[in-house]
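Researcher: I'm preparing a figure for a lab meeting and need a structural model of a single chain. I don't have an experimental structure, so a prediction will have to do for now. The sequence is pasted below. Please return the structure as tokens so I can convert it later.
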Amino acid sequence: MMAAIAAAERGALVTLLEPNERLGKKINITGKGRCNVTNNCSVEELLAHVPHNGRFLYSAFSRFSSQDAMAFFEKLGAALKTERGNRVFPQSDSAFTITDTLRRRLQQLRVSWVQDRAMEVRQEEGHVVGVRGEKDTYPAEAVVLATGGVSYPGTGSTGDGYRIAAALGHTIVEPRGSLVPLESSDTCCGKMQGLALKNVELTVFNKKNKVIFKEFGEMLFTHFGVSGPLILSASAHLRNWEKEQYRLQIDLKPALDLPKLEARILRDLTEQHNRDYEKIIAGLVPSSMVGVMMEKLEIPEGLKAHSVTREQRRALVELLKKFPVPVTGPRPVREAIVTAGGVKVSEVQPSTMESKRVAGLYLAGELLDVDAYTGGFNLQIAWATGHTAGVSAAEEKER
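Model: Understood. Here is the structure written out token by token.
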């Protein structure tokens, strides 16, 4: 949609092919339905949040920055607000504000929307001449391929773009999930299924005990392992599952250092010396976590507070500050928010998004081998590469 708008604003006659029954289906589920439009930061900060092939995006981000994206939507009537972490949302807290804004602009520019699925980009003598869809064939002087990745296939991201790009001679870096839940071999996760932890600190270590990721926020236990905002953010840093072993460590009491936490527990044990130790632990963690804590600490049922040893008390402190979760790998790519991998960026001109393999072909968004952390950065990649591709495609007929 951004590419179509950018091209039409520069006088191009644009046809938008979309297999879904409505435009912007995937945008509507972003940010839990609120749509984290972009991140209100500098170009260098944007690049710092793209862990793979970030420099490829320098030109597109410079041409259409976060501030440009915000100005674009606000000029069209979509009021925005900036929240914690410079995350930008519509003031309405509804993603439909963004999709409605894009649709209205497409209508104003008389962009023709056809509900059809692109099957093939046609070329003659190394230059695109059109697109073959399931229903019809569409002649064109330039084509923008912006089909998304393979995550959330129900929204239309079915991997068609990889197949089309590969048929035109492009190298496809194996798609994989990024911003994806993680699986664990620890049966304790299943026992705590549905438990959401808030205000915890997550640290991720590799097999050499090096810290890979550390952040404060929210997470969730599931039947397969762990999910939630902290886990999704962490997953983008875990890119070497074939060779690495990662483990998670949760600080359940980040506001208390070890001495203060131990003092708190000692006070509880003293003041409630006739209660079961289990009840003391229940005052420190959510109820669905108590049994797991008892199991990990190997506490016998019925142990009274006055019988708790120093070693047992310190073991509790240690577990509260360093609750371990081993992880075995990411969930399937179809469950990922973002697809990593895609068309090799060395085969695309960064200043125009034009293919180096086929003249008149432009590539944008998740189809490319770029992905970012959470916080509006992935949508900013979509806006910036789409805008650059659309502008460049409109200029094709002038060259």
